[in-house]
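Work Package 4 report. The design task specified in the project plan requires that, given a folded chain encoded as structure tokens, an amino acid be chosen for each position. We show below one input record used in the internal validation round.
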């Protein structure tokens, strides 16, 4: 029986467009736009300026604090400018804009670690930091910070997240098929760093070929297993994955280290292997370019900083006018309106959808059906959390769960009144969390 959690929804998977398409290298971009903020925490500080020649892999922005990450140039070329540029999160933010040189890239790589058994844990953590690795599942939290638990805590299990529960997205699926051995090696590095005894690779049951491949690769490694999870959204959310696989509940308002678990995306494990064994910083990633109006949907290996418009061209363009253009999947992705937005470390998908019906966006009054409550995987009361968020009544919004919402969108997906539930909760959540942090500080 596949492993599961309570709540959740079953949107159409829509993965057939790309699930059998191996990851191919994207073409060389004509311009690279590297945002200095591609992660949770302080943005990187630029260390290059207009006119500088850079090589691929060279650091172009250094971390600005403990919770931060450096950024590197994905190509060799010339810095055109360091300037504000439209950002995936909205508005404009500083970015290093590079004109790629013609021909092959010349690389600046870090010293590879050839003997992992003898490499101290501190050096591995530092390598993850200097390689600019962040959570590639979309959370983009700096990995070097996440792999070290707070004082007094320890990990006993590392879970690699290969669930890929978002509809349409298939790049993690193809990564597991084409780079499974490297992912397992990345998991072994994480086990060494954390001292955890067990590694688990969690995969939804709709990827039987990836399950089989990783089972074969881990057959002789008793402390690493593959866990087959039920196909249900949001199976890939880390608290839900921990519940499904280990039957452990992360406390309300808590984090996975409190139940001794570290969760990392399979793409992050691959990036860790690449940084440690090849000395390569995180400058490329797998991206699914898909949707019913994309001429040739594909999985591509894309340089961070590549404008979305150039990737779309490599997929044959659109067959119809796109009214919706989303970075990520349809449930948690962020709608965009400009093709010069670049791929960042957190971009798992680029999704183009046909125009919506206007009535899909018209919210009507709540009919008190409680469907949103039934599907909420965090056991919150979305209808009330949204109502109080809209009224800016933060105490009440928090009481109904606004601070613990994982923004999965399951409530909005099922609501027959089409209420903008997750949207309203997302607006109040930062203020709710800020108040919670202030209370904890003064306690
Ligand atoms: S309230 Fe938050 S966690 Fe619950 S279903 Fe809605 S978006 Fe998901
Ligand atoms: S699903 Fe929509 S209509 Fe039903 S209780 Fe929740 S908010 Fe109200």
């Amino acid at each position: 029986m596949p492993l599961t959690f309570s709540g959740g929804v079953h949107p159409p998977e829509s993965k057939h467009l790309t699930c059998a398409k191996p990851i191919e290298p994207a073409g060389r971009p004509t311009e690279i736009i590297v945002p200095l903020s591609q992660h949770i925490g302080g943005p990187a500080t630029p260390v290059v300026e207009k006119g500088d020649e850079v090589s691929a892999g060279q650091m172009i922005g250094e971390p600005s604090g403990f919770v931060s990450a450096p950024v590197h140039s994905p190509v060799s070329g010339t810095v055109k400018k360091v300037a504000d540029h439209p950002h995936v999160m909205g508005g404009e933010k500083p970015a290093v804009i590079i004109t790629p040189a013609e021909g092959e890239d010349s690389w600046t790589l870090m010293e590879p670690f050839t003997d992992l058994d003898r490499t101290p844990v501190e050096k591995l953590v530092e390598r993850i930091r200097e390689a600019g690795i962040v959570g590639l599942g979309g959370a983009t939290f700096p990995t070097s910070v996440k792999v070290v638990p707070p004082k007094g805590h320890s990990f006993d299990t590392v879970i690699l997240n290969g669930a890929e529960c978002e509809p349409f997205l298939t790049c993690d699926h193809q990564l597991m098929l084409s780079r499974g051995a490297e992912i397992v090696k990345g998991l072994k590095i994480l086990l060494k760093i954390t001292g955890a005894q067990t590694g688990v690779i969690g995969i939804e049951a709709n990827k039987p070929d990836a399950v089989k491949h990783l089972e074969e690769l881990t057959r002789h490694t008793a402390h690493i297993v593959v866990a087959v999870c039920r196909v249900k959204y949001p199976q890939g959310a880390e608290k839900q994955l921990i519940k499904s696989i280990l039957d452990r509940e992360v406390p309300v308002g808590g984090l996975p280290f409190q139940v001794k678990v570290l969760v990392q995306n399979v793409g992050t494990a691959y990036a860790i292997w690449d940084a440690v064994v090849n000395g390569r910083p995180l400058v490329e990633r797998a991206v699914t370019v898909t949707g019913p109006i994309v001429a040739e949907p594909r999985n591509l290996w894309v340089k961070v900083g590549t404008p979305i418009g150039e990737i779309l061209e490599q997929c044959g363009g659109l067959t119809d006018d796109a009214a919706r253009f989303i970075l990520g999947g349809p449930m948690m992705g962020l709608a965009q309106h400009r093709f010069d937005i670049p791929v960042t470390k957190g971009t798992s998908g680029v999704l183009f959808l046909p125009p919506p019906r206007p009535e899909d966006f018209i919210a009507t009054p709540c009919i008190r059906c409680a469907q949103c409550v039934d599907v909420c995987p965090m056991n919150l009361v979305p209808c009330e959390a949204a109502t109080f968020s809209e009224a800016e009544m933060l105490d009440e919004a928090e009481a109904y769960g606004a601070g613990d919402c994982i923004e999965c969108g399951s409530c909005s997906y099922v609501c027959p009144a089409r209420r903008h539930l997750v949207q309203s909760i997302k607006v109040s959540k930062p203020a709710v969390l800020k108040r919670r942090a202030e209370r904890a500080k003064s306690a």
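The first strand starts at residue 23 and ends at 25. Validation will be extended to a larger panel in the next phase.
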